[in-house]
Amino acid sequence: MKDTQERYAIGIDLGGTNLRGALVSRDGNIVKKIKEPVTEEVLDSLSGVVESLFSEQVAGIGLGVAGLIDRKEGRILISPNLPVLNGANLVERIGSRFGVPVTLENDANAAAVGEKMVGAGREFSSFVFFTLGTGIGGAIVHNDKLLNVAAEIGHMTVQADGQRCHCGNFGCLEAYASGRAVISRVIAALEKGRESLLRGVSETIYKLTTEDIYRTALDGDSLCREALRDAGRYLGIGIANMINLMSPGAIILMGGLTGAWDIYVKEAIKEASKRALRELFDAVKIIPSSLGDNAGIIGAAGLVFEHGVIVE
């Protein structure tokens, strides 16, 4: 007799700053959602979020995690922004505890799947996806398929002999265009005595956020505007590189820094227009994610269904 009970997947999006989890239906609808800040006890937090969402109706768990992963072994090889996860076998850890199949994917790849399923990527057969937050991640969808490649866009070199990145390399896009890079640049200038309206925005300059910087930039603060425009210029270099390499139908941008679209992203588009081959640039759309923070959890859950875990 066929089981008529609705089946769900748990989707997890574990990034450098936040841990998000959701109970998701086959058609991408979120039934229940949890969000927590990432702490040093991230593995315990991960198990706790899954437990809060788990029920007999859950037939699989999809994990989207920031870092370079080994899909076959279910292991995180390296997570520059979450080093506590280096070497962790999350498929084994979560699967053995909850007794259901577990799928592991890079968080940006999972988010791209979400956008392809029910978001901004639905109308494009090929697109390059950028996640712009604490760090910078990426994913590539080509001919309606997620490419099984690292797509570590944030770690392409954009400045020869540039500053050191968290990954250990020098001159990475992430070291110049990420949220961490913007904040670091602003704090360094403030430490040197640079005048700015940011003084007094937070109890200490070391607690400033990208949102603080963007709001102050809109008030005309020169330091904030310089930091966002400089980061946007480097982002534009990265976008141009991907346009020239992949000739996608779209570049889809997701993450907290897209909130600074009018300065940061517009500067990136301007720079990309100078560096990408004209014919390719004219054929691409540079657009924001339509799912926002939900892309990763929807996509991670979607990978569970896609991999045939749930059987009707």
Describe the protein's architecture and organization.
By secondary structure, this protein is an alpha/beta fold. It folds into 2 domains: 120 residues, 2-Layer Sandwich (Nucleotidyltransferase, domain 5), CATH 3.30.420.40; 169 residues, ATPase, nucleotide binding domain (Nucleotidyltransferase, domain 5, 2-Layer Sandwich), CATH 3.30.420.40. It is 38% helix and 21% strand. It is built from 10 helices and 12 strands. A hairpin with a 5-residue loop joins strand 2 and strand 3. Helix 5 packs antiparallel against helix 7 and helix 7 packs across helix 8. The protein is globular and about 60 Å long.
Give the structure's gist in a few sentences.
Strands 3-2-1-4-7 form a five-stranded mixed beta sheet.
Q: Strand-and-helix sequence, N→C?
A: EEEHEEEHEHEEEHHHHEHHEH
Query: What is the strand content?
Result: 15-25%
Rg is 20 Å
Give me the count of strands. Answer: 12
What is the number of independent domains? 2
Shape: globular
Q: Give the overall average pLDDT.
A: 93
Please describe the structure with a list of short key phrases separated by commas or semicolons.
single chain; 312 residues; alpha/beta; Nucleotidyltransferase, domain 5; 2 domains; five-stranded mixed sheet; 10 helices; disordered C terminus
Ordered list of secondary-structure elements with their pairings:
Elements: E1 8-14, E2 18-24, E3 30-37, H1 42-53, E4 58-65, E5 68-70, E6 75-78, H2 90-98, E7 102-106, H3 107-118, E8 127-132, E9 136-142, E10 145-146, H4 174-177, H5 179-191, H6 210-218, H7 222-246, E11 250-254, H8 261-275, H9 278-282, E12 285-288, H10 294-306
Parallel strand pairs: 1-4, 4-7, 8-11, 11-12
Antiparallel strand pairs: 1-2, 2-3, 5-6, 8-9, 9-10
